[in-house]
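Students often ask why we bother encoding 3D structure as a string. The short answer is that it lets us treat folding as translation between two languages. Here is a chain of 201 residues written in the first language.
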Amino acid sequence: MTDQKRTYRMKRRAELEEQTRLRITESAIALHEELGPARTSISAIADRAGVRRSTVYRHFPDDDAIFTACSSHWRAANPPPDPVAWAAIDDPAARTATALREVYAFYSRTQRMYTSLLRDEPHVPAVQRRLRDFHGYLEAVQGVLMAGRGLRGAARRRTQAAIGHAVAFATWQSLTSGQPAADDDAVALMCVLVEGAADAR
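And here it is in the second language, the structure alphabet:
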């Protein structure tokens, strides 16, 4: 066999391995979204990907390896809105409305996955580790939305609580899933809550 043929075969083998790895990753993501991580088995992933269990383990020796690959792949395809852009909006009320519109649109696009992940978070350590970034993101959003309000004491605490409630996935879900409110209505309701929190008695 010539060096050229050997190089071609090695390259082709590597390409096929990468395709298999991607198919396994995408199969795991689909099952995590449909069933939840707690109910997703290696056998189910293998069946979905059309490979043997041993092939899954060859690419991903443990749960953490699978979750790392799934998380990276899914987040690359579903990036959350960037809070840095909101920081340039001077008016806190306008900043909050803009942020909530974008966050709620993100939740609308990703609701099946976050419903499964947040439900299984208490039961699956690998999910707990992966969701730290999500919770950290929401904390960063809250910081951006509190900036420039000039509040102190009880007014500050109430406003912080209102913002934390407004940006939570569970809040968006409760306003839009079982209720008639559309995303725009949900944004309007939460803006009233946030802006009125400082004056509440």
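Translate back mentally: The longest helix spans residues 3-34. Keep this in mind for the problem set.
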